[in-house]
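Replying to the earlier thread about multi-chain prediction with a worked example.

Input:
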Amino acid sequence: MEKEIIEHGYSFNRRRFLSNLSLGVGSVALGSLLMPDLFSRKGGEADAMPLGVPHFAPKAKRIIYLFQNGAPSQQELFDYKPKLREMRGQEIPPSVRGTQRLTGMTANQASFPLVGSFVDFAQYGQSRAWVSELMPHTAKIVDELCFVRSMYTEAINHDPALTFLQTGAQQGNRPSMGAWLSYGLGNLNQNLPCFTVLLSRGIGNGQGVYSRLWTNGFLDSVHQGVQFSSGEDPVLYLRDPDGMNRSERREMLDNLSRLNDMSYQEFGDPEIATKIQQYEMAYRMQTAIPDVMDVSRESDAMVKLYGPECFIPGTYAANCLLARKLVENGVRFVQLYHQGWDQHGNLPYEITQQAKDVDQASAGLIMDLKQRGLLDDTLVIWGGEFGRTSYTQGKLTPDNYGRDHHPRCFTIWMAGGGIKPGIVYGETDELGYNITQNPVHVHDFHATVLHQLGLDHEKLIYKHQGRRYRLTDVAGKVVSDLLS
Amino acid sequence: MTLKIEGFAAKALWAMTVLIAFLLAFESHLSLPLWLQAAGRMHPLLLHFPIVLILASVLSGLLERRPLTPGWTRLTEILWLCSALTAGITVLMGLFLSREEGYAGNTLNWHKWTGAATFFMAAFCYWFRQNKIAKLPAGPLYVLSACLVVVSGHFGAELTHGEGFISEPLRRNTETQNVPIDQALVFDHVVSPILEAKCTGCHNTEKAKGKLVLTDSSAIVKGGKNGAVITAFQPDASPLIERLHLSPDDKKHMPPKGKPQLTPDEEAILVAWIKAGTPYRLKVTALSHQDTLGLLAQKKFSRPSVEEPLPDFEAADASVIEKLNHEYRTVAPLSFGSPALSVDIYGSQAYTPKTLEELDPIKKQVVALNLSRMPVSDADLKQVAGFQNLRKVNLNFTGITAKGLEQLTALKHLQTLYLAGTKITSEGLLQFLSKARKVRSVILWDTGIAADQIANIRKTYPGVALTGDFSTNDTTRLKLNKPLAKSDQWVFDEKTSVRVYHPVRDVKLLYTTDGSDPDSLSKTASEPIVLNSPTRLRVRAYKEGWLPSDVAEFQVFRNSFRPDSVFLLNRLNRVHLAEGAHTFFDRQLGAIGANNPAWANYFAGVRNTDLQLLCWFNTPVPLKTVGIRLMVEEETGIYPPAVIEIWGGENEDKLKLLAKDIKPDLPEPREKPTLRKIELPVHTTVPPKCLKIVVKPFQRPNEGPKLVLIDEMFLN
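Result:
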């Protein structure tokens, strides 16, 4: 045998090597004829799609994201777990809990007693979705909603989790979802910002929201979210100073833009061009914003739909009504935050109040969009940044308990925008601690949302400091089961 | 000669191996000339060669030890070479074919990689036989190749014939979607699918709950353990329908609680079918359009399952589109590469009929038009009717009427129409729908077309989705929210006025000033309420058709003597500084809630020292009371002070104790946070020019002192 190997070595001589090599190179050359752009430098950029146009026909044109900041407890709202009530006070089985990290708030807790919901649940609609008594209005419209009970995230504390859901990264220097949409799709109405932010607060334990959640990150600053405040001036610094009329303003802007243009010609800094655009938009917003914000012409029917708080600026209900008015006027992305869902303790009282704040207005918004025919192409999302634990934080008393942060499962709902209505997707185990079916990661969620707006999440790319970035980073899959 | 050909073929095989590996590695960059696409389509023809050849090679390889004829080994070798070559060509063609539209998904991936593996395996088998370098057992290699051929072939078959092609005859065909309406039977294609979706999960031949089987007509006639479930022509007397109508909580309700329930339409179909005498062989087309069953059955079939593809029209010139875009008009393609355009118009003040006229150059390409809230009149719709390819028009809250709508019948492709908030009438809409055949959805909310009229239109046009009002018979009365109030001076010296208001229109606001609850006999707050003493203003809102609101309470405070200068003798708590000593006389009321700016800015406090505040007045003040407004929040340790002392005199060196309070009203554990006013009467004959106010934090034995947070002080 050894001899044969040596002979084989001799037989594989230089001539044969070279002829095989040339054949191989020839084949590669032949193959490369079929790939005209393989060796050109375009590469990734060729994959990126042109901006301002959906990559494919979109189902949704606009998004309203009803962010429930602080992480609402899924066990008390949408994820019905009767077993938790049966096992009240018992230790969570180690097989269920596993070995993953806990927050600093409960990691040192001596025991982890399970606790069930203090409210009852019932099934509603055609879809027989379980909804708790805390959400009576939402229960009425379950057939419009798509519940995802198997969302999960990677972060365990509010700020990173919130930042992760909004920007696709935990650290917070990336563009927000709304900024990506503004970048990828552009404005529908040139007189209003593409991406607007509305804040409200419940009485529950609150967590801060910061302007970096609606940041443009490394994108042009024109894509930044514009916060509308509830005071006299919805958009700050928009009003003309006392004593200046509109024609003087116009003249001032014209001169200013001439100056800006000169420096743009000289330095070529794109931020200068952005600035010129922003001045112009602000000028147009001076008339467009009061028109949108005016609720005085809304009928009593609206109050019945959204609840009587909808005319009090700064409430969640008012923001929902405003969100409808904004999307009706062509705003692409309306981001609401309702603070106060962080029930580490005193959960029964606080969550009841929080649910009261949002239940009617959220359901009202869906029906209002539907009756105007806007729900078909408006995607509404309701949810927090993570879930809450099945065991109690702190002491379990007969009428009081709390729940800690739980990134391993939480429930959100979506409606409209080509999302399948009347379904409940994903499942958690009977203790509501781990996902047992159809997990949906934050990146998958982002990929799905972008897909509904006609954007391929792998092709919505921005090159920054030598790296190509996406909202979904390097992961994410469209959850096609959710699409109608 | 054979040797030469074989050598040539072997080289070709090597080249092909490299080529395929290369193409697979950079597949995403592949772009094919047309003639290669044509070659790709040869794949389904060619693939039969490698299948047969590889199987033959495997067989021949396995029989090698007992050759049937001389030269068997040589024959096997050539067979393997041919197998590998044909497999290679097939893989190449397959790769080309896969680049065509409509090939994607998991099955394709599996087929691609198993197919490529088959080729590499065949090539390896050939080389392995040529150069026996390793001591690999040949048998298993051959068997593996055979398996790969079978697996890859199977995936290929699934791609061409659809998934589950082989097992299809074994399964029962339940698909009805594809039955054309003229062949559809009422029972087989309308009634039976409902039973199958909602009933036969339990009532089938295997499970037969209640001994009832609903899978075929004879079993349905037979009924269950309680006899027949259907009485022909009498739905009310049929247990099948009875069970549907029971309360969902009833044990006998079907389908059982928790299982998918029947939709109203499905229920109506079953009822109508029984009413019609349970026809089993009747055709759907034989039903009259006026008949309930006929309408429902038609509706089931009339629903378009897929959106109609766009007709071919050329794209408009990019420069034209760009020119038409301005601040109040957005013209954009539906998606990348699509010639279809969508137009959105905003800014009702900027709108003129010209806004539409200018769109003439792209009238062929516009498929979606949004005119919502624009002052569009019937006359403008003539222009809209010229956009021949329109699919979707949004006319919500515009000035159009039924007359204008008539013109839109010219739009042959119109599918979705938004008419919310317009003056459209039921007759006008009926007339429009009779001509606009393609319309699938109309938004009719807030139009004055009543719910029963909408129901009528629905009956005539079951294929059209009509969106009306959702809360027609909603008689629940909502509770008004609390009234609100504004005032320039919540803390005043002589008098102040408070304006109470409510965001809901036409609300009656009734109030009291004596601390009692307002009722329907209380005073009406139509104008600002003028107050000249410290008051608890209690207001309640009333409106017809609504429940009255809860009582809102607003407090005004009086501070007659504002010190001319103030000074703190001790330091405030480091994080509760606010505006220092001025905080207590700034006339700004604090509020509860750590996130509220009024919390951080209007409360100042002490914990580890006493608060000692000196106040000077330019002229002596006839002081009668000293009031202190403070916050109490048990949970976070904000308590009322243990001791309050008021000292007064001519200057800071000649102070006498004027008043003292040593009985703090301590909060209960977990008591809700409150704002309190503690008032001390002052007894002095000589009006002081200087005051010293001392506040000592409360402290329990063996615990740290509690925080005292003071909002305002009232000197009267």
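The domain at 54-482 of chain A is CATH 3.40.720.10 (Alkaline Phosphatase, subunit A).

Feel free to reuse this layout for your own posts.
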